[in-house]
Design a protein that fits this description.
267 residues, alpha/beta, seven-stranded mixed sheet, globular
């Protein structure tokens, strides 16, 4: 039986208008840095790896080149106190991290790719467009969100990486599917999971930041391509209607709190 676990690796207090353009300027939103574990009869799939606790603790010495962008714009807003790393969360749920077969990265922003090095035995599934852009992001805000210390190892022979160029059926049975949803970043993807009791769940990552954003077509000002992001949001809405699916947005606090708390899982 397929099960879905939801973890939170850190808390990020966002400026609300940075999540939804021109919405509630000056207000703060208590967001989070989640990741998800799918226990499928044929293997374990981790979706995203949260934020790196090492990055938060010491951005100046993180990775080969440090992370000055993070230190400048987000260090005071991110807390990992009382939160597990992705690896610790997986272990706390009763799984060996070496048993994770696949890691699907919705994209490579620092709050989603921070635990890559904790899963050296896994096969990483990333959209090719995301891998290419992460190294040379043109937008100055996007540049701060990509931290080489997170994903640089994916270029080494020590890590197995499958570059996706569209939809991908992880197990070949339609139960765990990668669906491109670009816009927030060039190679952003969502993960569609079919559960035996709950039905279909769409782990939509940062396709939009809140449920209001999905309903009203609202995007953050730093989206890589706002037009593409809106098209992806509408694609997710259509998918949810067509498959009677529940949509889980990575940064919507209510969405996360509606999910079972580990060691309990969605079935």
């Amino acid at each position: 039986m397929t099960e879905l676990y939801a973890f939170n690796t850190g808390d990020w207090a966002y400026e609300y208008s940075s999540m939804l353009r021109l919405k509630n300027p000056g207000e703060r939103y208590p967001s989070l840095c989640p990741c998800y574990l799918i226990d499928h009869p044929e293997g374990l799939v981790l979706v995203d790896t949260g934020v790196s606790h090492d990055l938060v603790a010491n951005p100046a010495e993180y990775g080969a080149y440090g992370a000055p962008g993070f230190a400048d714009f987000a260090a005071d807003d991110v807390s990992v106190e009382g939160r597990p790393s992705a690896a610790d969360a997986v272990a706390d749920a009763g799984y060996d991290t070496s048993a994770v077969d696949y890691v699907v990265l919705t994209h490579l922003h620092l709050d989603h790719a921070g635990g890559i090095t904790e899963f050296p035995d896994a096969e990483f599934l990333v959209q090719r467009d995301e891998l290419a852009y992460a190294w040379w992001p043109a937008d100055p805000v996007q540049r701060r969100l990509y931290v080489e210390g997170d994903f640089g190892v994916l270029r080494t022979p020590d890590y197995e990486v499958t570059e996706l160029t569209g939809r991908h059926d992880v197990f070949g049975d339609g139960s765990v599917r990668c669906v491109p949803t670009p816009g927030h970043s060039p190679g952003h993807q969502s993960v569609v999971v079919d559960l035996p009791e709950t039905g279909t769940v769409v782990l939509a990552g940062d396709t939009a930041f809140t449920e209001e954003a999905v309903e009203r077509d609202l995007q953050p000002p730093f989206a890589w391509d706002t037009e593409a992001a809106l098209a992806s949001t509408r694609r997710i809405r259509d998918l949810a209607r067509r498959e009677d699916a529940d949509v889980v947005l990575a940064h919507d606090r209510e969405h996360h709190e509606d999910l079972p708390t580990p060691p309990n899982a969605l079935e």
